[in-house]
Fold this sequence. Notes:
The chain is built from 6 helices and no strands. By secondary structure, it is mainly alpha-helical.
Amino acid sequence: MLALPAWAGGDPERGKRLFEQICAHCHTTTHEDKIGPGLAGVLDRVSEERLDAWLANPPKMAREDSYFRKLRENNRWGVVMPPYPAMQDPQNRADIIAYLKTLR
């Protein structure tokens, strides 16, 4: 039997709470940018797998992935998201991704 990807099976309600605690300082749930980009429709721009990799290690993805590298280069403050300890937990990432799916 194949194992499901880490982001599969997330809880959007828990993801919303995590988003409000961790992500909302820099991101909106609309298309409006804050310190980081607005996240409405983010899963129309990037796959769940790539977003999961980003959440786990933003600096690495900003170096290695053209989409995330361009986001960093276009950030008016020149910042890249830090690797948050809470995002090292695959279930937390799955829950946030499940919540972001609701923002489409």
